[in-house]
Amino acid sequence: MWIRKSDHDRETGRATPVPTQIVGNEEFEPMPQTPDQQRVERRIFELADHYSRKLGMSRRTFLRTSGGMAVSFMAMNEVFGPAFLVSEAEAAEPAARREMWPKNEFILDLQTHHVKDSMAGPTVFRSLTGKFGLNPVLSGAAPAKDSLHRANYVKEIFFDSDTVMACLTGAAIGPPDKYVLSADDIVATRNLVNEAAGSRRMLAHGIGTVANPGWLEEAERQVRELKIDAWKFYTGDPVQPWRHDDEKLAYPFYEKTLKLGVRNICTHKGLPLPGPGADYFRPDDVLQAAKDWPDLNFIVFHSGMKHMMTMLPPGESGIDESGDIPWTTAFCAQIRAAGLKNIYLELGAVFGHSVVTHPEVCGHLLGQLIAAVGADHVIWGTDSIWWGSPQWQIEAFRRFQIPESLQEKFGYKPLSARDRELILGLNAARLFAIDVQEARKAIPEDALSRMKVAYQAAGEEPSITQYGWIAAV
User: Fold this and answer.
1) Rg (CA), the chain
2) Is 261 helix (H, G, I), strand (E, B) or coil?
3) CA distance 229 to 248
4) Whole-structure pTM value
5) What are the tens digits of pLDDT across the range 5-43?
6) For residue 363, what are the contacts with CB-CB under 8 A and spacing of at least 6?
7) Residues 402 and 365: beta-carbon distance below 8 Å
8) CATH T-level assignment (fold) for domain 108-436
9) In the chain, domain spans
10) How does pLDDT run across 287-319, given as a tens digit for each residue?
């Protein structure tokens, strides 16, 4: 049985600033909490009790401060080994954290989600569960009020994290009327937020499938009328799977989108849905398409990672001693061999999954991606708000160090401050022709920033929860 992590946290009072259990977004079966994660969770609460008493506050209040974030990484270092930069001073004096990171950091999250306002219960995947056997309880379960909707999305993404800009995406799976968000819904949120802010804070994906009759006309409508910023595709749609290198289906679209002026194509790869389209989630079809269409940018979501530590027995990482990550390692080698410069690898879900479950896998992942395409071709994405506010992922990425043992054995380079800057936002800004210097001037003074300042002054209340599914004990 599955339950929502947010419901579980509310009922048990055991929410932590950094997740201690993988959550699913209805695309895959979430794995049970591992023994190491249980140890991390216990240690977070022990440290939180200690420091909250020193500071004269409740544990619940302390965990919502930056000190709570600090003890989470302290606990992870104790259990997993020293993978995160963190000091005891951050826990003892939460204000110490504010001096650690660049004050003018530009963070652009290229993979964020909410569901349409009319969707009170589970998303489109409920319509596929009966056929493909994902989650038998979805038909009768509903999320907490507004947890996955637009208003809470804005709070989690912009008020409770350091995210500066975000791209709202969707999933073109099944018939269009069953999409989690349509292209029109996505663009509506982008426009509402940008108009309210008075500056450009959001980008919007156009979605659909090239296998649909009339797709070229619909693509033109989305560009001309909706003014979408990029495309997002699911090639493994269980109903109409297709490949990026299909010359009859995909290539006419590439020609069309180039003429329309939209050059960025994001594609869900890895994390296959069960069913007849599962093999279409492999990333290898991008290679020939990228070679044949050098003026297009192919942004591979999830870095093509097959299982992301899901559907594995507790304690197993899914990789062997050679560091082979199913699908991703081979794909990285293929990119390097082909010398392709228009393929970008995105971190949505795979960074979050690996860093809280198997930090050594996270080290292999980042090491291999950067070796294959360079730090200037790795893109930040978080898959939030399924994972709640993206702040914990931002903090984890700022702090994470590729273990020295992996650097020595596999030749991975340590992450530099410049690498982190590029990945967190500058790479995506370049792809979308965003003038970062101008954004840095405009955004701190816009209406959304002023609302955030007022929210913080009134006593910010981060949810420190996630809205995806976990396996019930």
Assistant:
1) 21
2) coil
3) 25
4) 0.92
5) 888 888 888 899 999 988 876 666 677 788 899 999 999
6) 83, 402, 403, 406, 412
7) no
8) TIM Barrel (3.20.20)
9) 2-101+452-471, 108-436
10) 999 999 999 999 999 999 998 665 455 556 667
